[in-house]
Design goal:
Organism: Streptomyces tsukubensis
Protein name: Polyketide synthase
Strand content: under 5%
Mean pLDDT: 86
Order of helices and strands: HEHEHHHHH
GO biological process, one term: fatty acid biosynthetic process
Keywords: Multifunctional enzyme, Transferase
Radius of gyration: 18 Å
Structural class: mainly alpha
Distance between the termini: 20 Å
Pfam families: ketoacyl-synt
Shape: globular
Strand order of the largest sheet: 1-2
């Protein structure tokens, strides 16, 4: 099992500790996401496109991704939805935790089934530089998720 949860819970043990100790996973809006926090916040809950709170539950470090480990170029990694990056990372961790050599899966009868929600990454990055546009199609498509894992691990 592998996971990522708000409150810096990056393993099942850390998630259990968060729950069992009754810790709060709510934090300030992250500054490293490139959001204009001054423009994003408005105390009026009825203002469209604004947040009336300055806090939430976020996955910190979501941008940290070892693209080379998965044979992905830095350019392609930038265009990948964080959900794809996190899925690859946690899939790798599951194999490590299970003491399974990823190369042992090549040619095996192993299925990869993935469910996801919220395919808005491309719309959140409307000013993507032209050199990344070719990767946005696969980097933001939910249909690619299981293929990334299947291809990446054989």
């Amino acid at each position: 099992m592998a996971c990522r949860f708000p409150g810096n819970a990056a393993s099942p043990e850390e998630f259990w500790r968060l729950l069992s100790e009754g810790n709060d996973a709510v934090s300030d809006l992250p500054v490293e996401r490139g959001w204009d926090l001054a423009d994003l916040y408005d105390p009026d809950a009825d203002r469209p496109g604004k947040s009336y709170t300055k806090r939430g539950s976020f996955l910190h470090g979501a941008a940290e991704f070892d693209a080379g480990l998965f044979g992905i170029s830095p350019r392609e990694a930038v265009a990948m939805d964080p959900q794809q990056r996190l899925l690859l990372e946690t899939s790798w961790e599951v194999l490590e935790r299970g003491d399974i050599d990823p190369s042992s899966l090549k040619g095996s009868n192993t299925g990869v089934f993935v469910g996801t929600n919220g395919q808005d990454y491309a719309s959140l990055a409307p000013n993507t530089p032209a050199e990344f546009e070719g990767h946005l199609g696969t980097g933001t498509a939910a249909s690619v998720l299981s293929g990334r894992v299947a291809y990446g691990f054989g």
